[in-house]
Design brief:
- The two termini are about 45 Å apart.
- The chain has about 600 residues and is α+β, with helices and mostly antiparallel strands.
- β14 and β15 form a beta hairpin.
- The chain has 16 helices and 17 strands.
- Among the domains are: about 140 residues, Beta-Lactamase, CATH 3.30.450; about 200 residues, Heat Shock Protein 90, CATH 3.30.565.
- A five-stranded antiparallel β-sheet has the order 2-1-5-4-3.
């Protein structure tokens, strides 16, 4: 997991500014969300007031209509007419009585129709003689009609004189077919005795309820429904719903204190406001689409969202620009530092600003100039030292060695009849010619091996062949190039230091193999070995023992590093009493131009 402190400066600044912007926008959204919820509750409460006003208008309307049904109880003429026993009147008088009663009753009905122009019909039923007084827009009465078969008949009787509101139903008395009506009915009683003498029913068309709803002014497109006791629609602004059974989701809500809920109405997310008229027992439901109710706040919400988006975009863009203004010069400086780390001391930083980063860039440029100058100076000194040490190494084959060699040759000639004199002199002459090439740095591997063979051949003469020399070189690499005098210090140490014991079966192996990306030399002996502390000192160039050519070995290490880098070098492995193995790894150089 990436730690925050490990992030780039640009990312830190972007995250910081981004977090602040998101925090501010988040707080704005929270406050706005609270305000929206409050607004929505107020809008719903306002809609609830509209629904309550419709209920109040409904109750006032039917209260007036209900009072009309009570007139026959208090009107002496109406009460006598409905309570009259027509069976006790002689046939000669019955026609006259009927004419008077019907005429008087129709006058009464006509007055009611003139007052309540929304009525469909009025009926007064007499229990004893079955006489019916009626008035309406369709005079024809179905002779098959039976009052006692009406669904609402028992309710009216049970109400015992109280008004009964009857939801939408067919007016079965009409002929040839009925019509849907809404009614108010009441049981009629004889004045003073309260005997049950008949029933009055006032019918009205459901569409006349439209004026009750439209009396309530609203700025919203509310859909109102009035639902009767049988869950059928008495009124709706959608005429196709009148008389239909209502969706169960819109009724029987229990009418809690909340009085609204969210529903899907006709494929739209809507708010349903419901209430009940305690007077009529009917339900009033108002439905409005959420998009309609909250259209104003939705527009504001959309505007706020766009403002938030723009603010976030501006904030993030500002964060990126500010971060980039810091990051760009720092990144340039970091890139230059990495190039310098890889050895490119020309990677100057171009920054002319006078702020802290500008001063840092100028200081960096001055520093790499000084470092480049110091490295150049150190390189020149190292080259001079290398040439001096190379000359010193070549001069190690000193006159004393030459004297001893010549002395051996002399005694060989004297004692052995001069059989090996020519061979020994050839080796010596080759060695002297090789050492004379002081200006040549790279030679072929074949030349280095022939020099070592001559050098070892002369040493075997000196030590009376106490050791064997084994040379195993891959013939493919003879024409490849290597640094001059690379093997001699290790061969010298193996013979002068490693093969000094009493063992007469010493050997010295020189092996060279061509690897995939390098040439590997190995100088192996079975001499007395070297302890690990001495090996460490030799590798550091700190060993002081005269019998060890530590300077020559250190010179080889430095020359390999100088010419070939850290990927190549020398490894010394040794076990006391068993011998030493030197591994030298150099690059594959097929032409001296590759190195130059």
């Amino acid at each position: 997991m990436i730690r925050y402190k490990d992030l780039s400066i640009r990312k830190k600044l972007v995250y910081l500014y981004g977090t602040l912007v998101i925090l501010l926008v988040g707080l704005n959204f929270i406050f706005f969300h609270i305000a929206i919820n409050s607004y929505k509750e107020n809008m719903i409460a306002s809609t609830k007031l509209v629904n309550d006003q419709v209920i109040n208008n409904l109750e006032a309307f039917f209260s007036n209509l209900s009072k009309t049904t009570n007139i026959p109880y208090y009107d002496y003429n109406r009460n006598n007419t409905i309570a009259k026993k027509y069976n006790g009147i002689s046939s000669n008088q019955l026609d006259k009585v009927n004419e008077l009663d019907y005429s008087d009753t129709y006058d009464f009905f006509n007055k009611l129709f003139s007052i309540y122009n929304y009525l469909e019909s009025i009926y007064m039923y007499q229990f004893d003689d079955g006489v019916v007084f009626r008035e309406g827009y369709n005079y024809y009465k179905d002779s098959r009609y039976m009052l006692e078969e009406e669904e609402w008949y028992d309710k009216v009787i049970t109400a015992n004189g109280e008004e009964v509101f009857i939801g939408i139903h067919e007016n079965e008395q009409l002929y040839p077919e009925g019509a849907p009506v809404v009614s108010v009915a009441r049981l009629l009683k004889k004045t003073y005795t309260n005997d049950h003498v008949g029933i009055i029913v006032i019918n009205m068309y459901p569409d006349k309820l439209d004026q009750i709803v439209k009396q309530v002014n609203t700025a919203f497109n509310l859909h109102h429904m009035i639902i009767d006791e049988n869950n059928r629609v008495i009124y709706s602004d959608n005429e196709n719903l009148i008389g239909e059974a209502v969706d169960h989701n819109l009724v029987n809500k229990g009418y809690s204190s909340v009085n609204y809920e969210k529903v899907n109405y006709q494929g739209e997310d809507s708010i349903l406001i419901y209430g009940e008229s305690k007077y009529t027992g009917w339900q009033v439901v108002s439905v409005i689409a959420e998009d309609e109710l909250f259209k104003d706040i939705n527009s504001v919400l959309l505007l706020i969202l766009w403002v938030d988006v723009i603010l976030v975009a501006i904030g993030m863009l500002s964060a990126l620009l500010i971060a980039q203004s810091f990051y760009s010069p720092i990144k340039t400086l970091d890139t230059s530092m990495r190039l310098v780390e890889e050895g490119d001391f020309k990677a100057f930083v171009e920054n002319d600003s006078q702020d802290e980063i500008g001063h840092l860039s100028q200081t960096f440029n001055h520093m790499i100039q000084q470092v480049e100058s110091l490295i150049e100076q150190r390189t020149n000194e190292a080259e001079e030292k290398r040439v001096a040490e190379l000359n010193a190494l070549q001069s190690q084959i000193n006159p004393h060695f030459m004297y001893n060699t010549l002395n051996v040759i002399k005694w060989m000639a004297k004692m052995q009849g001069a059989e090996n004199i020519t061979q020994s002199l050839d080796q010596f002459i080759h060695l002297l010619n090789f050492c004379a090439k002081t200006k040549v740095e790279f030679i072929t591997i074949g030349e280095e091996i022939r020099f070592i063979e001559s050098y070892v051949g002369l040493l075997r003469l000196r030590y009376y062949n106490r050791f064997d020399i084994i040379v195993d070189i891959d013939e493919k690499i003879y024409d490849y190039y290597m640094i001059k005098f690379l093997l001699q210090p290790f061969v010298e140490n193996a013979i002068f230091h490693g093969l000094t014991g009493s063992n007469n079966n010493y050997y010295l192996k020189i092996i060279a193999d061509l690897m995939e990306d390098a040439i590997v030399f190995k100088v192996i002996d079975n001499g007395i070995g070297i302890d690990e502390y001495t090996v460490e000192d030799i590798m550091k160039g700190e060993h002081k023992q005269k019998s060890m050519n530590a300077i020559g070995i250190r010179n080889v290490l430095d020359r390999i590093k100088l010419h070939h880098g850290d990927n190549y070098g020398v490894k010394i492995e040794s076990i006391l009493g068993e011998g030493t193995a030197i591994t030298i790894r150099i690059p594959i150089i097929k032409n001296v131009v590759d190195e130059e």
